Amino acid sequence: MTEECVARRVEINGIVQGVGFRPFVYKLANRYTLKGEVANTSSGVFIHIEGNKQHIELFCSDISEKKPPLAHITEIDFFDELVNNHRDFTIVDSREQSVMTTLISPDVSVCDDCRRELFDLHDRRFQYPFINCTNCGPRYTIIDDIPYDRPKTSMKHFKMCPLCQAEYDNPANRRFHAQPNACKDCGPHIDLYDNTRQKIATPKPIEKTTKLLKQGCIIAIKGLGGFHLAVDAENDQAVATLRKRKHREEKPFALISLDVESVQSYAKVGSEEEKLLTSPQRPIVLLKKKEPNSIAKAVAPRNCYFGAMLPYTPLHYLLLSHGFTAMVMTSGNMREEPIAIDNNDAFERLSDIADYFLIHNRDIYLRSDDSIVRKTSGDTRFIRRSRGYVPVPVFLNKKVPSILACGAELKNTICLTKANKAFLSQHIGDLENPATYDFFKLTIQHMQRILDVQPEIIAFDLHPDYLSSRYAQEQKDIKKIQIQHHHAHIVSAMAENRIDGPVIGLAFDGTGYGTDGAIWGGEILIADIEKFSRTAHFAYLPMPGSAAAIKEPWRMAVSYLYDAFGQDFWNLDLPVLKAIEADKVKIIVDMIRKKINSPLTSSLGRLFDGIASIVGIRNHVLFEGQAAMELEMLASDQVAGIYDYEWETTDRHKILTRPIIQGVVKDMLQGLHPSVISHKFHQTLIRMFSELCEVIRKENDLNRIILSGGVFQNSLLLTGLINALEKRKFKVFSHSKVPANDGGISLGQAMVAAAVAGK
Question: CATH number of the domain at 538-688, please?
Answer without folding.
Answer: 1.10.357.160
